[in-house]
Specification:
Structural class: mainly beta
CATH architecture: Roll
Order of helices and strands: EEHEEEE
Strand content: over 45%
CATH topology: Thiol Ester Dehydrase, Chain A
Radius of gyration: 14 Å
Oligomer: single chain
Length: 125
């Protein structure tokens, strides 16, 4: 799997149509040196990737194998810094044959991003 992030989410809770993960944003992440040198901020695309990886780790139902179809929306609310831990709260909805995931990524300072993703089920399970 190709990804710009180094850490993987750890599932804290998983249940019917909901889940929560936690992932550390270590100061050694390879994206920091080139992103705002002298004032490291975790790139928004990496926050979105952690929501995506969280959704794959905590699917809406056990055994579901999903494939990202679209990023429907993103809203960045506050920065994520080296040493932060992201907690991602997932809410799933099945609609028109697809899965929609609403993910809210937060740090100890509050909400960092709200992301809405759309998935299809991967064939050949």
């Amino acid at each position: 799997m190709a990804t710009p992030v180094q850490s993987l989410p750890r599932v804290l809770t998983a249940g019917p149509d909901r889940g929560t993960t936690r992932v550390p944003v270590g100061p050694g992440e390879r994206v920091f040196p080139g992103h705002y040198p002298g004032f490291s901020i975790f790139p928004g695309v990496c926050v979105v990737e952690h929501v995506h990886l969280s959704a794959l780790a905590a699917p809406p139902e056990p055994g579901r194998v999903l494939r990202l179809e679209a990023i429907e929306s993103t809203r960045f609310l506050s920065p994520v810094f080296p040493g932060d831990a992201l907690e991602v709260e997932l809410t799933w909805e099945h609609k028109e044959g697809r899965w929609r995931c609403k993910g809210v990524a937060s740090t100890g300072r509050g909400r960092a991003a709200a992301v809405r993703l759309r998935f299809t089920e991967r064939s050949g399970r």
